[in-house]
Amino acid sequence: MHNRDALFIFCDGSSRGNPGPATIGVSAQTRDGEEIFFLSEKIGNATNNVAEWSALARGMEEALSRDEKIVKFRLDSELVVKQMKGEYKVKNQDLLKYKIKCDQLKTKFEYFEILYVPREQNSRADALANLAQDSP
Predict the structure, then answer these.
(1) In this structure, what are the phi and psi dihedrals at residue 91, rounded to the nearest 5 degrees?
(2) Measuring CA to CA, which residue among 19, 112, 24 is closest to residue 64?
(3) Cis omega (within 30 of 0) on the bond before 136?
(4) What is the 3-state secondary structure (H, E, C) of the chain?
(5) How is the chain split into domains, by residue range?
């Protein structure tokens, strides 16, 4: 068990073209805003929704690899948040693969929360996704 509060993990996906070159940005922070880790990665060609789901999955994997068990995910994709919570059905087969994967990952956390936040509150993850887009 960690001697600090939950880790806030901000995730964002970006696709230029939708589908097109896609990237993810993930920023894990303490409640005080100290960044514990971040990801800025290209994921190949994908739709924006696949990029959003991919960011969530990578954030979950990275948190688990660092033995972070108490997590609060924040995404500016209302679709992914509602699909993850089961409020919306996942009909798209590409997205369903991510939903199944994320549901499996979720069971490995002691505490898991996912909430929608407005884009302004997700600026670091957005910047990381854009950084990957602009990198060679």
Answers:
(1) -95, -30
(2) 112
(3) no
(4) CCCCCCEEEEEEEEECCCCEEEEEEEEEECCCCCEEEEEEEEEEEECHHHHHHHHHHHHHHHHHHCCCCEEEEEECCHHHHHHHHCCCCCCCHHHHHHHHHHHHHHCCCCEEEEEECCHHHHHHHHHHHHHHHHCC
(5) 7-130
Q: How far is CA 50 from CA 30, 44, 69, in A?
A: 27, 11, 25
Select 7-130's CATH number: 3.30.70.100, 3.30.460.80, 3.30.420.10, 3.40.50.10810: 3.30.420.10
- In the predicted model, residues of the chain with pLDDT beneath 50 are 1-3
Task: Count the residues in the chain.
Answer: 136
Distance of CA 119 to the CA centre of its chain: 13
CA distances from 28 to 17, 72, 87 (A): 27, 9, 25
Q: Is 133 exposed, middle or buried (0-12, 13-18, 19+ CB in 10 A)?
A: middle
Judging by beta carbons within 10 Å of its beta carbon (0-12, 13-18, 19+), is residue 3 exposed, middle or buried? Answer: exposed
